[in-house]
Amino acid sequence: MIKRLTLLHSNDMHGDFTAEQIDEQLVGGISYLSGYVQKIREEEPNTVYCIAGDMFRGSIIDSEFKGLSTIEIMNALAPDVVSLGNHETDYGIAHLLFLEKCAQFPIINANLYIKSNQVRLFRPHVILEIDGMKLLFIGILTEEVITQTKKEAVIGSFVDIHDAAKEVGRICNAYNATDVDLTVILTHIGFEEDKQLAAMLDPAWGVDVIIGGHSHTFLEQPEMINGILISQAGTGTDQIGRFDLEIDTENNCLVNYTWKSITINSDNCPEDVDIKNRILSYQNETDKKYKRILTRFKRTLSHPDRNQETELGGLFSDILKESLGVDIVLMGSGGIRKLEMGPQVLVQDLIECIPYDDPVYMLKVNGKQFEHMMRHMLRDEVWQGVSNEFYQLSKGIKVVYDIPNKRLIELTWNGAPVEDEQMITIGLEKFHYLNFSEFFDLSIEEVRSNQKERIVATSERDIIEEYLIEHPHLDHQIDGRLTLIK
After folding, report:
1. What is the pTM of this model?
2. End residue of a domain, out of 284, 313, 348
3. Using the 8-state DSSP alphabet, how is residue 14 labeled?
4. pLDDT digits (tens, 9 = 90+) for 147-159
5. Which of 5, 283, 304, 403 could form a disulfide with 245 if both were Cys (CB 3.0 to 4.6 A apart)?
6. Among candidates 395, 330, 331, which has minimal Cα distance to 369?
7. Distances 231 to 220, 224, 259, 452 between C-alpha atoms, Å
8. How many domains, the chain?
């Protein structure tokens, strides 16, 4: 028998709770997203809605209530199943386990373990039954979670793609005998890794669809690898992915599909007023604390892409360099979470732009080590979308890199070439310090032999906030401190 199933999916929502006014339309926001999901559930009784990770971070509402507000808003949105993303661990594993108890929907992950006894922290999968169909969902998490749980030594994660494939196979083998009609992997490993994972899966396991996240990929149509459909729905709540599937329940297989990305806006989505009011109740609380004007820039400053020099990245790294008295600041591009800010800047804007607020460490490296760090930052994996670690450079540094020829053409500091034996003090956020060996391909012990590292500030955001208050009408232009030849 052929049965129809509508599979709706989101990923990387990052606390994108409220709609924005764009060309006389309200675009995005949970209230319109919820209205669309409810509308489709009424039109198509066989509807499932899933989220492929990263519900948290990006919103002052999320950070102020440490994710509890997000869980309550998600409870109102009522997804059928959610997989973990790397930002679900931002408030710590213990807090995440508390939030999971507050969720009224299943949160799944198959490859996050307690190291000592190999016990999974979450349900690895869930089987949903709808109109006589059995739908198996399996959750797989990105390797990046390892870097975010360095302080929690008992936690491990087997998220190498090969190991992830083994986890999928183990679960599929265990449940194929239960007459599963559709198998979906909810991943949070990035689109390129999704393709690698699909290629490794044994067709006998019966995986039909991979719905992914983490790389914020917008698609025209799903990709097919090894007979498996791979899809992702960008980022935020401005759109939602929609599969309309035809499933052969006698042979337990997918026989036909259509997919499209649906724009979430006030023109084609009814508004869920109840969820809107719930969000407003949180927003009223945060507005009292954070809706005050911090400063005003001369113009809007942007951060359009983490893998390039940006106006906001240059401004922030320069502020930290000047305030801390180090030679060079390497500020993680991924920690700057707004695409643009200004000209009016509220306290809320700064918190949403720099949500992680790390301490800053000072390390001393020699010129040879610094050159190695820069070469590693600019390696091929960055341009292939495999690596996410990239840095904004403070003033004084000039790097020119030829991407096609893999050649570092220029590396100067204050107008002079960086010499091998030259000693340089570097300011680095704690997250990047804790993962120094992985992110820079140098052992921390080797760098420590130059001088023991130390904390020079307990809050980078405090430094930036005070500087912005004291220096109104700031501007920052791209000045060629990082030139990429493509």
Report:
1. 0.82
2. 284
3. T
4. 666 555 555 555 4
5. 5
6. 330
7. 10, 9, 9, 46
8. 2
